[in-house]
Design brief:
Largest sheet: 2 strands, parallel
Order of helices and strands: HHHHHHEEHHH
Number of helices: 9
Number of domains: 1
Shape: globular
Radius of gyration: 20 Å
Helix content: 55-70%
Number of strands: 2
Distance between the termini: 59 Å
Structural class: mainly alpha
Strand order of the largest sheet: 1-2
C-alpha cells in the first residue's frame, strides 16, 4: 500500500507542465519583439494589440500555475513528511532561492539598464508568493476569496502613486517610476491564490478530479512539457540569448542600448 502511494505522488501531470511550457514560449516571443523595439531594430507597439495579449497571457498563465503547482508540491511533501511536521521552512528556503535569482536580475539590470531596472519582477513575486501562500495550501475556498479580494484591490490601486519607493513590492509606485518588468504583490499575488484554489479543487489529494484525454506521449506535449519543467532556466537565459543573437546577426550594435 505504501509503495502504491509513493508511486502516485511521484507522477507528474502532463497538462500542468504543458501549459507552463506554452507560457514560457509566449514569454520568449513577447520579449523577442520587445527587444526588437527597444534596440531600435523595428518599430513596434508592444503595449497593445496581439503583442499585449501574448505578453499578458504568458504572465497570467505562468503566475496562476505557480499557485497550482504549489498545491501539488505540498501534497507530495506532506505524503513524505512524518506526523504533522511543519513544511514551512522548506517553502521559505525555496522562496528565498527564487527571490535571490530575482536579486541577481535586479543587479544585472541595474548595471546595464539603469532606467529600466527590475526592482520587483516576476522572480521576486514568485519567491515572496511561495512563502506567503503557505498558510493557504490546505484550503480550497479561502485562497479563492482572498485572491479575488486582492485582485479587486489591485483594480482600484492600478493608478495609485506615492512620493516614496518603499512600497514598490506591494504595488504602490513613486511618480515617474519605470521598470521593464514590474510584477507587484497587488494584484498578482491574488492570481497565485486563485491557482492555489484551483489546484486544491482540481487535483485534490494529488489526483485529477476530472477526466482528460491522455496526451502524455504526444510529441508536442512532451516538447512543451520539457520546456515547462525547465522554465526557471529558460527565463534566466532567454534574454541574453536573444540579444546575443541579434548582435551576432548584425541586427544591432552592442553599444546601442536605448533603455
Amino acid at each position: 500500500m505504501g509503495q502504491t502511494i509513493d508511486k502516485t505522488f511521484q507522477t507528474r501531470f502532463w497538462e500542468v507542465d504543458f501549459f507552463r511550457g506554452v507560457a514560457i514560449v509566449l514569454m520568449v516571443i513577447y520579449h523577442l519583439f520587445y527587444d526588437l523595439r527597444s534596440l531600435g531594430i523595428y518599430e513596434l507597439d508592444v503595449n497593445s494589440g496581439i503583442l499585449l495579449i501574448i505578453g499578458r497571457s504568458a504572465s497570467m498563465t505562468f503566475i496562476f500555475l505557480v499557485g497550482l503547482s504549489l498545491t501539488l508540491s505540498y501534497s507530495r511533501a506532506r505524503s513524505r513528511a512524518s506526523g504533522n511536521r511543519s513544511l514551512f521552512p522548506k517553502y521559505v528556503r525555496r522562496g528565498a532561492a527564487i527571490f535571490s535569482w530575482g536579486l541577481v536580475i535586479t543587479f544585472v539590470t541595474g548595471t546595464l539598464l539603469p532606467r529600466g531596472t527590475i526592482f520587483f519582477g516576476i522572480l521576486h513575486l514568485i519567491g515572496v508568493s511561495i512563502i506567503l501562500a503557505y498558510p493557504f495550501l490546505k484550503f480550497q475556498m479561502k485562497p479563492l476569496f482572498v485572491g479575488l479580494a486582492i485582485l479587486f484591490i489591485g483594480f482600484f490601486a492600478e493608478g495609485a502613486y506615492v512620493d516614496f519607493p518603499w512600497l514598490l513590492w506591494l504595488g504602490l509606485r513613486p511618480y515617474g517610476f519605470y521598470s521593464i518588468d514590474y510584477v507587484p504583490l497587488i494584484p498578482w499575488f491574488g492570481l497565485v491564490l486563485l491557482g492555489v484554489s484551483a489546484g486544491n479543487i482540481l487535483y485534490r489529494g494529488y489526483r485529477r478530479q476530472f477526466r482528460i484525454r491522455d496526451l502524455e506521449n504526444n510529441y508536442l506535449v512532451r516538447l512543451f512539457g520539457l520546456l515547462g519543467r525547465n522554465s526557471l532556466f529558460i527565463y534566466l537565459v532567454h534574454q541574453p540569448l536573444i540579444i546575443g543573437f541579434l548582435i551576432l546577426g548584425g541586427f544591432t550594435n552592442i553599444d546601442f542600448m536605448p533603455f
